[in-house]
User: What shape does this take?
Amino acid sequence: MINDLEYKSIKAGQILSDFVDSFWCMENKSRETLETIGLPDGRIDLSLIKTTETPFQIRLLGLGTQQYEKGKIPANSLTFVISFKLPAVEYVFRDSIASILNSGELLPNDFWDFNENDLQDFELFCQKASSKIESLAVKKIDTRKQKLFRLIYESNGDKTVKELSEQSNWSSRQINRYFNQRFGLSLKTYCSILRFRASLEHIAKGKLFPEENFSDQTHFIKDIKKISGSLPKTLFQNKNDRFILLSALSSQ
Assistant: This one.
């Protein structure tokens, strides 16, 4: 692990499990800005960040479908993040994130009553965030959508659109319209991202062959390269780089 970069993650409680994947924090204690390469993980991130050079900010990052350009983790920075599952877009934010596909936006510095002082204690932040999300969440969820998303997440995207449609009793045409309008991408693309995310843990361990989520080696290599821009072997050779920290470790 990178000595000057501390990472901590807490899974969401059962009450919020339909909406929140996890809470996590990252602190760069060094005096140097760290280069990063971000990889898609199928989540929407709401982050609170503060550095010695820039004021407190709250950001919302939409879904990513490809490797991000090299970014930066600022020196002496602290970031707290809520990683959301897709149902949160409709049932917590009550909005669409299609416009911020592969991008993000700054939110008001008092969004959801958060403020700079919330960065003082990660566990207290998780408690405050959980209470806020629970208060905002719509209590009655469309049963088709709830079934669909549970199937998607439980299988790490390893089901066809046809299977998901039949098992959730919702037509594939309606599902894809919903996905494109709410999230800015198709269901098939989203499932590919989840399979990719699940594969990172195997790649980090040197398993450069398809696990249960891929039909064969060719399909495995093609999908990994399409999303990450790199072959599985290249990702493994760089397994201690920042992308594993931000994409693979955050799913554990």
The chain has a mean pLDDT of 84.
